[in-house]
Amino acid sequence: MSNSSPLAGKRIVLGVGGGIAAYKSVELMRRLVDAGAFVSPVLTRASLRFVGKTTFSALGSEPVRTSLWDAADPIPHTRLAQQADAIILAPATADLIARYATGIADDLLTTTLVATKAPVVVVAAMHTEMWQHPSVVENIATLRKRGVVVIEPEVGRLAGGDNGVGRLAATEKVLAAVEELFSGGRGQILHGKKVLVTAGGTREAIDPVRYLGNRSSGKQGIAFAAAAATFGAEVTLVSTVPVPESLGLKVVSVESAQDMFDAVSTEAAQCDLVVMAAAVADFRCKEISPVKIKKSQGAPQVVLEPTPDILAFLGSAKPGHQVLVGFAAETGELEAEARRKLREKHADFIVANNVAEHDAGFAVDTNRVTLVYEGSALALDLADKRRIAEKVLGFVAEWARNKGVWKDQG
Ligand code: PMT
């Protein structure tokens, strides 16, 4: 994240609760500071059993505070509360959540929470049994009703060797949610929606060591999946490339066009939105050699056959509640080609990118696309692939609701 980040110059109070995940808030603080935010860490007494003040002082931008009484300032809580642009609680333990939900104000962090008008992001982390306890469920519902952003814990390894829901959400997810607060974002526009995204280039085997491939890095598809998750969707990402675990996404790993077809066709019918960002090979080898083809045998004759066209298949079987977004990688005649694909594959949108440009398309971090749909086209300026994904998803969600494809109001 650079200082063009929406976090640059923002004053953020990072409240650290007393849980084993407290060590992860150090990384969160560092990333917020890297993004240009002024971060005031407020450590609860319980958190000091897990992390030390020194670590936060060494990596932070503002003084670390642990008590209402340890600063020269007699009213640190009102000062912090008034100046904050946002407060993040990470980890938010069952105890901290309960105290915040009931308005208890008996230490610096809870008094700051009660005194603030700034948006608050609660990043919950605790054992599965605690997260599912009716008191925690009710407290979380109370906070949500008050407009608090709650980032739910993820499934994974917990303290003491247990497994289940309870892990602090990935740093990337928290950062994205906080960025969203400041970027005039459209909030949870995909809440309750199931979204399927494909990413990366397929590999079509020639023999056990060689394949036909393409230059897709998966960056654009992964950006769509991460943005959809931030917008509240339940996301499945079918990918040919490794996906950072920190994104906390459900990933189905595939290699060939046929693998991708199999994975997508089993998942798609239940999905409200499918985004086919993957660069799927159009052709594969008719016969795959079971053994490595030897150079000494001379150049092989490779006979190709078409792969299944996944987007066209989805278009032919599209349920009424589904929006289908395809891509088009073109080197010329951008809009005309995109419109042909829109028509022939029965998609609702085609995101067309000119892959001949050095700063757009394959493998780079930015993209410049034209969203082609019905009788219209919307050109989006060059932007980071994540911003492109957010803009496209925002537009598509609004279209789906206006058209009545999605019956909810978002
Ligand atoms: O991954 P990156 O490095 O970030 O690069 C991003 C990207 C350039 C790969 C991406 O933005 C993009 O354009 N993806 C689509 C590439 C592509 O395969 O375009 P196409 O014009 O050949 O295919 C049109 C559409 O049909 C695509 O949605 C494709 O997923 C789909 N398709 C194609 C062939 C096939 N057999 N099945 C398909 O579903």
Structure overview:
Helices cover 32% and strands 24% of the residues. It has 410 residues and is an alpha/beta fold. The chain folds into two domains: 11-183, Rossmann fold (3-Layer(aba) Sandwich), CATH 3.40.50.1950; 188-402, 3-Layer(aba) Sandwich (Rossmann fold). Strands 12-11-8-13-16-17-18-19 form an eight-stranded mixed sheet, sandwiched between helices. The two termini are 29 Å apart. The model has no long low-confidence stretch (mean pLDDT 92). α1 (24-34) links the parallel β1 (11-16) and β2. It binds ligand PMT. Ligand PMT binds at residues 216-221, 257, 276-280, 282, 307, 309-311, 326-329, 341, 353, 355, 361-363.
Helices and strands in order:
Layout: E1 11-16, H1 24-34, E2 38-43, H2 53-59, H3 76-83, E3 86-92, H4 94-102, H5 108-115, E4 120-124, H6 128-131, H7 134-145, E5 149-151, E6 154-157, E7 163-167, H8 171-182, E8 194-199, E9 204-205, E10 211-212, H9 219-230, E11 234-239, E12 250-253, H10 257-267, E13 273-276, E14 283-285, E15 304-306, H11 310-316, E16 323-330, H12 334-344, E17 349-354, E18 366-373, E19 376-384, H13 385-403
Parallel strand pairs: 1-2, 1-3, 3-4, 4-5, 8-11, 8-13, 11-12, 13-16, 16-17
Antiparallel strand pairs: 6-7, 9-10, 14-15, 17-18, 18-19
This protein binds ligand PMT.
Residues 216-221, 257, 276-280, 282, 307, 309-311, 326-329, 341, 353, 355, 361-363 line the site of ligand PMT.
